[in-house]
Amino acid sequence: MTLDKILVTLIGLAGIVFTYWFFLMKKYKAIEVAGSVNITVEGGYSPNTISIPKGETTTLNFFRKDPSSCLEEVVIPDFKVRKFLPLNTTVAIPITPEEAGEYEIVCGMNMFHGKILVK
Ligand SMILES: [Cu+2]
Q: What is the pTM of this model?
């Protein structure tokens, strides 16, 4: 291998490592929730990761402050939820997970992500 090929390989590897680190190692701080939780929708979901108990109903109160149409719909695929979020209005979405696991909250276009951890 010539020096430039080695360099290109190294840069490529660094890129891969960085991508993994960025997307997989980024630590999400799960907020423990009981009963209900207020989720602000503004440039994403805040809190972004919540932890809820299995077999109990938790109400997710979405409040959209972000005027971008990207976030006007919230989807929780595993619970067959797809709801329109009017601006500055609370939309309550109760969910009752029967199984432990990780569930996704996404915007209608699958660009913003949040997580529900069920224990
Ligand atoms: Cu979107």
A: 0.77
